[in-house]
Protein 1
Amino acid sequence: MIRDFGIVWSERDLLLSGLANTTILSVLSAAAALLLGFMLTPALMSKRRPLAWAARGFVDGMRCVPFLLFAYIVYYGFPSFGVRLDNWTSGLLALTIYNAAYMAEILRGAWAAQPPEPIEAGIAFGFSSFGLFRRIILPSLLLAAGPVIGNQMIQIIKDSAFLTIIALPELTHAASSIQSRHYVPFAAFITAVFLYWGLCLVVEAGVSWIGRRAEARR
Amino acid sequence: MAGTSKVLDVAGVSKRFGDVEVLSDVSFQVDRGETVCVLGPSGSGKSTLLRCINWLEQPDAGRIYVSGSQVGVNRAGLVMTDRELSEVRTHIGMVFQHFALWPHLTVLQNLMEAPIQVQRRPKGEVRDEALALLAKVGLMEKQNVFPSRLSGGQKQRVGIARALAMNPDLLLFDEPTSALDPELVTEVLAVMRDLAREGRTMVIVTHEMGFAREAATRVLFLDRGRVVETGSPNAFFAHPETERARQFLQRYAGETSAGRRSA
């Protein structure tokens, strides 16, 4: 068993590059998903019915599709329509779009739970719709929804493991390569698990930082 | 069109929520420097009237002018765009019953937010004014504190300073002391009394009869969405003309004679 971990250690460059790729994938798609969420949330809350319905349809639809299937559709399905994307682009796109739906829903929930008065004060003080959202609503949403957004980021990190099926060289893919090359499944996979865990700890530290800022304002 | 000394001209405003007529043909004017207290039983339409003035509620009928410009309808006679409404609203300061401070900003940032973001005034100038206003409401030492750390009375004083930071032509107060513990009411009324003395133009919806009697230049008595009486506070409190006003004042009789006048 010790020998197995020795083999994994000898392949550390492969594992570390997998970890780096997982980090890049997760950070980029989490940031993009959050940005898309910022845009989708006002649509979900819109008084214009068709806009709200379209956004609602997208969010509900996305949340009912298994991520693995969605990643298959983007990578293997899109070429049927002449859209051929490499595995990195497909992976990023799938992770981003899929999680944007969750981010939007998280922010919508936080918005619905906001007390109406501060938002109304923003209107009374002359903020127009975009300024109101950017300066008054959004900061409160981020503070209120910080922990749940952090949780979703952890979900994104874990979802990124599915992208091994489109041969994206992320952490799970690296662990899988090591195990098939040397036949050390337990050592390879448990090492990957610990690396994922470390990544999640970093996210949790970020969440607790936001949490402390929110606490000062509560 | 409103005369030039009129800061507020409300003409024939009506508003209904479903089957309920909340305001019915309400008209009144406020001159520069006046403190008008709007009194009346709960549900008489006082808050709705106030919220119509800055278009937080849209009246079904009637016209409202602030400093000569019509609110909600532009010069072409069309419903105002967001941008036009925003411009009009910067001339109207509002103080809310539940303070409505922005929780993610410090006290000082709460004061500076709208002048910088909406009025686009230079930051340094806004900051100096904001600090002076905090000194005026006695909260200089709380400038870097978040609103959640303040007492209700302190929150409302910040609310008033925040409204003043816009340099508005007109200040609206929507039951500014109703959400406060009785012992905190005094400090807020003291600030409002100072503003009345300075000759700020204010419309105040309140249940503080002692304050209205002392600080108002005029009272407006609303009942079931109509202006039933209007006049000087002395005349209104000493000799109400209508039965409705007499009944209303009787309920507050204990309070006006006993409590808050020393405030």
Note: The CA atoms of residues 23 and 157 of chain A lie 8 Å apart.
Protein 2
Amino acid sequence: MYPIVHTSVLAPTITKFVIKAPFVAKKRLPGNFVIVRVEENGERIPLTIVDSDNAHGTITLIVQAIGKTTRLMATKHAGDALVDVAGPLGNPTPILEGKTVACVGGGVGTAELYPITKALQAAGNTVHTVIGARSKDLVILENEMTDCSNHIVVTTDDGSYGRKGFVTDALKEIIESSPEITAVYAIGPLPMMKAVSNLTKNYSKKTYVSLNAVMVDGTGMCGGCRVTVDGKMKFACVDGPEFDGHRVDFDELIMRNRTYVAAEKISMNQYERECACKAKEVAA
Amino acid sequence: MSAINPLKPSERMKIPRQASIEQEAVVRAHNFEEVSWGLDEARALLESTRCLECKDPVCIPGCPVNVDIRSFLQLVMQKDYVGAVNKIRETNYLPAICGRVCPQEEQCEAVCTMGKKHPSIAIGKLERFVADYEIQHDLFVAPVVTEHRDEKVAIVGAGPSGLTCAAELAKMGYKVTIFEALHAAGGVLRYGIPEFRLPRKILDVEVNRIKALGVEIYTNFLVGRTATIDELFGEWGFSAIFLGTGAGTPTFMGIPGESLSGVYSANEFLTRVNLMKAYRFPEYDTPVHVGNEVAVIGGGNTAMDAVRTAKRLGADKAYLIYRRSRDEMPARLEEIHHAEEEGIEFHLLTNPTRIVGDANNWVCGIECLRMELGEPDESGRRKPIPVKGSEFVLPVQAVVEAVGQSPNPIVQSTTPGLNTGKKGIVVVDDVQMTSRPGVFAGGDLARGGATVILAMRDGKIAADAIHKYLEQKRTGGNGQAATA
Ligand SMILES: Cc1cc2nc3c(=O)[nH]c(=O)nc-3n(C[C@H](O)[C@H](O)[C@H](O)COP(=O)(O)OP(=O)(O)OC[C@H]3O[C@@H](n4cnc5c(N)ncnc54)[C@H](O)[C@@H]3O)c2cc1C
Ligand SMILES: Cc1cc2nc3c(=O)[nH]c(=O)nc-3n(C[C@H](O)[C@H](O)[C@H](O)COP(=O)(O)OP(=O)(O)OC[C@H]3O[C@@H](n4cnc5c(N)ncnc54)[C@H](O)[C@@H]3O)c2cc1C
Ligand code: SF4
Ligand code: SF4
Ligand code: FES
């Protein structure tokens, strides 16, 4: 069991967890993730390690509740525990040194981008950051990201905060005004990473994207997380999760990630029914 | 070596080989309960008395771990079932598992003297009977470990090779820790071989017996990532390491359409069903997809397990597509029989060329070519040659590829000086030592894909070698001589 030592709500549906996992805390590098099982009958889901504290043996996860497993996780508090936390998994992100780079985060992807941005700044890079969200209340980690960026732009789709528009609009301006940018790190929903990659291709800027393929083991054993990069089959969990965005077949991955939509609905509906029952029990 | 059997040899030969009691095919094809219930006591007793108690029991060298078959059968004849299972356990610490999954027909039973003229003794089924008897009556007593040694040994991977190596070393008094990447121990026994062949209850019992020897198991620990081999030697303080990480990386055929939804490696398909219990979705969260028609590609145990699993998940038609003929299938005979009985449709001498998808990127068919057999190839099997213009499309909604596996490279790529050969298979000497002193390896990792019992054999040989290596080190040598 992996005790939860702290939780806090960062935005509606987005929760931060600090979890005791000393072996993981000790070895993790920016870009690594863990595979978590919340409860005994649960599925294995990948979550990025946002931060770690070796002295206390803890790691930080930031999770958006979008389906059964992440919603169940959102009901957990300090004092509860997760049944399984395996990691650190995946390759660490290649961190450039002393260059100018852009970091682009969309939605909960901002949380996944945070450790990378921090490492990039620590490695002496000049960091331009763009974080985007659908609306004001979904903007997360603005202070943390500001602290590790030389320049930051926040965008919201609806204009309720920061600049109205998509992260790509802001990124385009940044690249044009700072042509010395050598690399772009983008993490967010697949359509966003695809849009960023299409944009940066025009400027020939090396672009790292983190692919959120559906995973089971996370150790290279099932091949369920396979993605096509440069025409070749890669396993996102062991060959990635970061890849050169200009070579990724995003459309294929977007289709693959829809594989279990029907099953996910069944899971969610059943979970909601159970929640409703439990709520009644509590009320009674 | 005295004889126990009251029957004359001629009488023994008249007794027919006792068959196990099995679930009826039409029923079991729709459930995940164990297919075979094994022998009951009466049948087991009768079967044991068929043994000729050979002066030269050739069955014993036929077993990769040299179970003293003759003696254990004699104990069965005397109704000393616990004595029998303990006799087996002297050389095989996982009898309830081997009795179920060993390819006996190629090993102990293949060479059994009775088998020359009559059906051979049902050694596997008797092994299973005594092991199950002990479990059912809760008669297991853990061996007492008398000696205690200071050295710590790390075992990487909780498959049959690692579990066996751990058990042997623990019995010698070493402090043994197993590191397992997944959240449960067992390796392929846990995530690959289905419940209907090896109930998890049985596996749990066997794993707990290894823990009862004082072996510690760390799950969720991926060696190479959570800690490297050098860290295990260094800060973790292990004196020797056994690698039993198996051959878990799935191979894909490389045909068009493999990224469609509904295409699985056998590993993913079986892991979802066995480790994650997708057959009980939504009670368990992990889903799996089959549809009405499903095609499984391959002819080994893995393919057989996958296709029988697909049938049980509700597929009306479960096809097995194999490019050679039935005789060349590497799967255990019993599994092929069981699959046929359960209504699996075999498409033999057939090779898939393309997976066809619909507008939503879901599998809707598989295109295949007919094959004919040509001259024997390097493996001695006749080589399949495509028949020109014989393409046809089978409508299916899921495809499972069971076309081979190779070792997972994580440990090899993070361990300097660890030599590997073809397909990343770790090179070992005749006592399972790798090119890194103190690092031993066995099972599928060192063989590229074999059997449970061979993995166990490697684990045992390695345990002895680790013991010699550590003794040598203790007395001041560098351990190298131990393997000479
Ligand atoms: C390397 C990696 C790192 C990730 N890091 C984070 C993170 O830091 N924070 C965060 O909130 N989310 C992260 N995710 C996404 C997270 O794993 C999914 O949101 C989660 O699995 C959804 O599970 P669910 O049961 O709640 O939703 P479901 O209803 O099951 O699924 C919703 C969608 O999530 C995706 N998904 C479902 N199951 C899996 C699975 N087993 N593996 C991967 N994706 C799946 C599918 O696209 C699906 O349509 C990461 C994904 C990957 C691959
Ligand atoms: C579907 C299927 C059916 C089979 N049926 C039969 C049968 O009927 N009879 C038979 O004799 N054989 C059968 N086999 C073959 C048999 O299962 C294998 O030969 C045997 O399990 C190999 O054992 P092993 O100990 O080498 O490795 P495995 O059983 O593969 O176990 C390796 C373990 O190591 C773990 N691991 C991997 N990398 C790491 C790491 N870096 N750190 C920590 N842990 C790690 C894995 O998670 C796994 O648990 C079958 C195989 C399959 C796939
Ligand atoms: S372990 Fe396997 S090969 Fe050996 S006696 Fe038992 S069934 Fe036969
Ligand atoms: S070879 Fe067959 S008959 Fe002879 S001792 Fe062994 S099991 Fe019995
Ligand atoms: S998640 Fe199974 S291979 Fe990547």
Note: The domain at 100-256 of chain A is CATH 3.40.50.80 (Rossmann fold).
Protein 3
Amino acid sequence: MNTPASSITLSTLQSIPGQSIQKHFGIVSGNTIRAKHIGRDMMAGLKNIFGGELKGYTELLNESREEATNRMIECAQQLGANAIVNVRYATSSIAAGAAEIYVYGTAVSI
Amino acid sequence: MVEIVITIALLVAGYFTGSILEKNHFKQIEKDEEAYSHIILHSFEELSFESPVKSVYMVSHGTVISHDYFKRFVASLVNIFGGRVTVYESLLDRARREVQNELKKQASQLGASEVSNVRLETSSISKHNTQNQTGCIEVYAYGTAICYEKQV
């Protein structure tokens, strides 16, 4: 998640409202692959009997998304961009117990 | 014999705890929906108001939920005859509404009055190799929170 303190503005829109795009830098992306934790897995097994939210997984996936986003931001900073527009997330499971999180967008300067 | 007893015990436990948890979750969701009803969530690429924009932030949240033993049992029965799996519909409904509430919460903390271009994504996290499939579903939502110069 983009914190207000971050120097890069993220947006899922095609532009930054109220600003005009000066220059395009092309696509930037970040990814991370996370495996499940055995302790969390056991807890998930228990939860499967009773149902409900799996806090451990929620945390894990939110952390992973944040990491992928940070990698994308780093990539954009290296290019000299100050905003990323049209950000999209994608998730794919590559093996049993591991998931890839991918985030991509267009780096621009405003 | 022992296996049958264990299965029945799990079914009963799943049914009672599952329905209590679901009821409480729905109550919480309805409370949150009311609390954040002033924030608009939409999937257009445009803004709803034509006033000058102060700043934009990206907000996102994901949640992972699992079904209970009873629901899985009912779903496996439905799998034989086909038809609507209503037990899972409520499960996904809960997850989707919760992430939307969380987006609204984050937006209101940032002082935004709408979240534009919201995308919802669903993925299933499950063990493929085991006979006893654990079904976890992740719902993820993200969008752009818009803060206007004048509060609208």
Note: Residues 55-79 of chain A form the longest helix (25 residues).
